[in-house]
Structures are given as structure tokens and as C-alpha cells.
Structure prediction request, 334 residues.
Amino acid sequence: MIKVYKITSRLNGKVYVGQTHLLIEKRFLQHAKSDTPLGKAMRDCGLENFAIEIIEECETLEQAQRQEKFWIKALDCKMPNGYNRSNGGEYGRIKNERLHLILRQKIQEKFATMLYMSPIPGERDLCKEYNVSRPTIRKALKEMEQGGLLSRIQGRGTFYIGNKVAINYTDDLTNEPVLTQILKSHGKITRSHILKQTIELPETKIAANLHIPEDDFVFHLQRLRYIDDELYSLANDYIPLNLCPILPEIDFSDNTSLLKTLEENGVVPYREDKIIEFVRSTAITAAHLKLKKGAPITVTRITIYDKAGNIILYATTKSDAYKSRFFVSSRVEK
Prediction:
């Protein structure tokens, strides 16, 4: 759905109307940083003096463009009476956001809750469902395939593989929503218990893994993960605080995805490296996992990068070695 929204000044009643496929809270913050009359007013008067709300939701881009024009005229919010500089009809302020990228996100959102290897409808059906042309559909599907989200099998069709579990059930960092989905399909329930959610200066080893100075603040999230109320793993996530300053305000105790939260705030994961090793537990780790000191544990060390190659997260997941299950899939080269 594409949302048509308005931002209203509580001080003078002036209005701005726009449209977006993003969360309106994220769009609100984008406006606050923008070099526009609205952005300047928000910074000068304070964000607390502006309110954002959804006016209506539209199924298609064409409908959203039409309704944006309607509301700008109906609310008389073109400058100088409001903050809009035009009559509307363009898709948001992010002008390099092309239609096939919006379509790709819609398809990903739809299939993210489905089982691994769910079939993708044919191009003709997708054209009807999303009210776009076949070239747009093909471009979106091609990019998804190149990004490792789709698999084409000759004679069988196209399947969504973006929610595969790449390593094991203890890997609840990068595949957290999928982990929950798979375990639910087996009648199991996952939950988290927050041990630590703080801003801190990183230890030397953590700073080195994040490639940041030791005097840079990091957001540290430490959780115990449970499956059917049985303790399963101890996870530590470290993120440079300057990448996403709102992280300390988020409640992660309800299985909120850390990576989705980052993505919703403009920090987009692109690639990850993993190292898996078996070690003997320290006294502290053993106490957390209710094991004997020195008991074997599995440690998964994860480094996540953005598209530019910058490290955005370093994490460790520790679990009882006897509860770890691994699945590896690879292509046979002929």
C-alpha cells in the first residue's frame, strides 16, 4: 500500500501533503532532515510541534499520485498557505525511487511470511495484482533473482528463497523472522529475554571487529533466546550507535527484528560473514546457558555489511553444542 499523509504544524496550522511506501515515522524524520520549507520549519520550531497522520492508503502508484494532488488542493497547502512547493503527483521526494524497486519491496513483504520455496505467480498474474506493466515486473524479478531471493527451476517455475535458514536454528540474528516462522510450523514458540540493552564504549576486540575507534559508542543488545520456554542461546549484538541512534528506545523483548529495525531507519544489511566454532564455555556463559563450566558450546560469529562494504553489525550467538543443528546447501559445479 502507498500511503498519502499529511504533516501539520501545531503552531500555525500549516499542512504538507505527501505520499510514501515507507513507515510514516521514517518519512517524518526524512522531512526533518530535508532542505525544504517544511524541513527548515521542523528544525526551527522543533519536531514536537509537528504531527504526521495517514489520510488514506492507495493500491496503485497512479491512485496515490491522483489523491496526493486532490488533497493538496482540498487542504489548500501549496505555498504560501502550506508547505507544498508543487501541485503533487510525483512519488515522494525520493525521486530516484523507481517503480520496480517499490514493486520488489511489495513482493518481498508478501512472501517473507510464507514458507521457503513458495512459488511466485506468473508475470501476467503479477501485472494484474500490482497494476504495472510486464517490463516492470520482469525488472523487479530479475533484481530479486540477482539478489539471491528467487530461484528459477526450468519446467517448474520461480520460487521465493529469501527466507531460507542458511546455517542453523541458533542463528537467530540474520534469520530471526524465518527462525520463528519455521519453529512455529513445528508447533514451537520463540521468545527473548533482554539481559542488556545499553550504550557503551566497546571492548578492544569488539571495536576491532566493527572497525571503529574504541572511544566510539556502540549499542549493545544481549538476549537469552527460548524455544517453547526452553533456554536455547545467548546472543550479543553490537552496532555503532551513530548508525541508528534510536536503537536504545526500541523494545526488543517482543521478538522485534534488529535487522528490520535497522533497515526501517535507513541502515540496510547487504552481506554477512559467519564463522562457526566449537569451544568450551566460560563460567559466565555456562551460567547464562545453565551448563556446567567447560561444557562444549557452539559460537557463531557474524559480521554484517552494507552495500558499500561498511560494517554495520557484529554479533555472537552461543548455544549448547548438543542442541545445534546445521544445514548446508551448495551448488555442484559441472
